[in-house]
Design brief:
- It is a single chain.
- It is built from six helices and three strands, in the order ααβααββαα.
- It has about 160 residues and is mainly α.
- It has one domain.
- Strands 1-3-2 form a three-stranded antiparallel beta sheet.
- α2 runs antiparallel to α5 and α5 runs antiparallel to α6.
Amino acid sequence: MAGLLRQTPAWVFVLFVCLIYVGYLQSRTRSVGRWQLIAVPAATLCLSLYGTWSAFGANPIGFVAWIGGAGLALILGRKQPLERSANYAIRGGRLTLHGSWVPMGLIMAIFFANYFVSMALATHMLSPRLPAFVGISSFAFGMLSAAFLVRAVRSASRTR
């Protein structure tokens, strides 16, 4: 494990610290605009799809699995109730949201899934041509990033 950490570029550690900070901010009560609420999860979704393409190329298994994971998150996310303690209020066109640690969990899950896939590919532990690896990784990327987006969209829509 120490060898893998030594091989990790310094920018990955900086990104990790920044993501922890973003997750921490999500845990605090804050006031945001609707689009601001959705911007980070939407960007995460796009980066997740790009990450699947950059890791596995134009592999149809990867894209089908990614779409399957995102679709599952959309279906399950629509059925999940929002936290009872959440208090949504519109003030000056902004939403006041109670903090939650759920976004931190999703952010860290996405980060570590990407880290594992990158390390597995860089160290040749797993092949980008192995269908099960491509499918499981892509499914996880799609599901995690879409879950993040679904939560934000549902939060924004509660105020309508």
